[in-house]
Amino acid sequence: MRVIRLTTAVALALISAHAAAADKLKLQLDWMPNGGDKAFVFVGVQEGFYAAEGLDVTILPGRGSSDTLTKIASGAADVGTGGIASLMMAQAEGGIPVKAIMSIYSKQPDAIYSWQGSGVTDMKSLKGKTLGIPTFSASNALLPIMLENNGVDPDSVKQIKADPGTLVPMLAQGRVDGVVVWSTNRPSIEATLTQVGKKPLELAWTDYGLDGYGLSFFASDKLIKEKPDVVARFVRASKKSIEFSLAHPDKAAADQKAMVPEADVAMLEADFNVTKPLINNEISQRDGLGQFDPTLLQHTWEWVAKSMKYPLDKVNPETLVDRSYLAK
């Protein structure tokens, strides 16, 4: 197997592994490949899990879950990673020929980060504070609901939209009291705040009532219909890749570093270690890695519907998942 390595500067191109006579798959990430939270896809290539299933996987960098869905729906990618809430919103807004084929995060990653001594101690303390929020993020729609559910008037919290890359520097500079980001960013937040003598404080939304599925693997309806065996092999290999990564986070980071040379291997490992509880927890242990529990799936939709003001019968979340490729 021959591996092509590209830096992320050039990697709005791609990262791929070639195997002779294998089925080719384009795997669209929901973000750039230099974060360790999705190290398992690189493990799938480097450890040969995809090749063993007869798959030649090309990994493409992305710019959010909506980007993943658009690329898969248009045929620019075959499979990909993204938040299932984005799939639900896309379906509610007119439909999309994409299905979720495997859960990755069985807990939501949304969080607010501040620093100790900022005056932020819990959700209720956000009243009168200023939050930096990403320009485009499903978390933005959930934020008012989270505040309301925790006794805070959303209008009492000032919000400043900014590019995701500038949020943590804004926090370090004290320009905002907190930032809305995924908990998978904790290592980089800690490193940045430590440089300015601040200790981070995390308000994980799961601690304040948020439940439901997060990151998932998607596949196009076209691929599912025309090549179900390819989808089955992809799910099988991806599951092995995730299990390997959970058991060997150091090796997972090294595998990603091999394909993304400019990434910091220590930070990649730290990123994946804080991601592990989103993947391996009491929910996935109860239901099985990758599974979609009907009740939790419905709760996920209810959060989306409430945040976007959709009627609950607008979407049946069961129509958005295909469990047939997961081991019983």
Automatic annotation (TrEMBL):
The keyword Signal applies. InterPro entries: NMT1/THI5 (IPR027939), SsuA/THI5 (IPR015168). The keyword Signal applies. It comes from the Bacteria. Pfam families: NMT1 (PF09084). Residues 1-21 form the signal peptide. Keywords: Signal. Residues 39-252 form the SsuA/THI5-like domain. One of its GO terms (biological process) is thiamine biosynthetic process. This is Periplasmic substrate-binding component of an ABC superfamily hydroxymethylpyrimidine transporter. The lineage of its organism: Bacteria, Pseudomonadati, Pseudomonadota, Gammaproteobacteria, Enterobacterales.
